[in-house]
Amino acid sequence: MIHVVNADQFRNYHDLLEEAWRLRHRIFVKEMGWSAIARDDGREIDEFDDDHAVHLLAVADGELVGYSRLLPTTRPYVLSSHLPELCEGPPPSAPHIVEWSRIGVSEKVRTSGRRLNPTALDLLTAIVEWGLPRGIRGFVSEMPTSWLLRLLQLHIHALPLGLPRTIDGVEIVAVNAGFDERSLRQLQAVRGSTESVLADHSRSTIKLAS
């Protein structure tokens, strides 16, 4: 189940958000070697974890098993502020486009093989399911080039914003990915279920701060 959490819910999700900061540290600092963002407290938090961020928490049996973050592109975000070299033109900026970043899955639920991890698939489904009724029609993201084909197979129209670059030993490309109702149907088909991936409160009118 995916809980969509913005600043108004931080108090209710304090413990899970603390788990999220520590999961991010394990993935991005310990595993991926992003030493520049390391903190002594073992929590990975940056300047974008503010009142404008929306956090997607994948929870199973009361435990955090996956995480990602959405940011509005109408104000500074990770790609525009720290990785503009991945774009051959200006980074996208529009009310209907968010940035999807800090995507991670707990060690306990990782899978091998070519199929998209079920928790990662739920996180992606949550963006589309939650975003469509709110007028969101796409996301930008910095991702391994191998993800491009997977997005297209999920009927998400992913277009590179520039040529790939090697960052920390991984070939990364910035993409502008559009989605619609057809994308949601394909995601549901791949998941094998039309049931919502969103927790009950997340189906309400939580909005990105502008």
From TrEMBL:
For this UniProt record, give its keywords in alphabetical order, as a comma-separated list.
Answer: Acyltransferase, Autoinducer synthesis, Quorum sensing, S-adenosyl-L-methionine, Transferase
Which EC number applies? Answer: 2.3.1.184
Task: Identify which top EC class this enzyme belongs to.
Answer: transferase
Q: Which reaction does it catalyse?
A: a fatty acyl-[ACP] + S-adenosyl-L-methionine = an N-acyl-L-homoserine lactone + S-methyl-5'-thioadenosine + holo-[ACP] + H(+)
Keyword Ligase on entry: no
Give the superkingdom in one word: Bacteria
Question: Pfam families, alphabetically?
Answer: Autoind_synth
Any one Gene Ontology MF annotation carried by this entry is: acyltransferase activity
Per the record, the similarity remark reads: Belongs to the autoinducer synthase family.
Q: Which PANTHER family match?
A: ACYL-HOMOSERINE-LACTONE SYNTHASE, ISOVALERYL-HOMOSERINE LACTONE SYNTHASE
Identify this protein by name: Acyl-homoserine-lactone synthase
Q: Which organism is it from?
A: Methylobacterium aerolatum
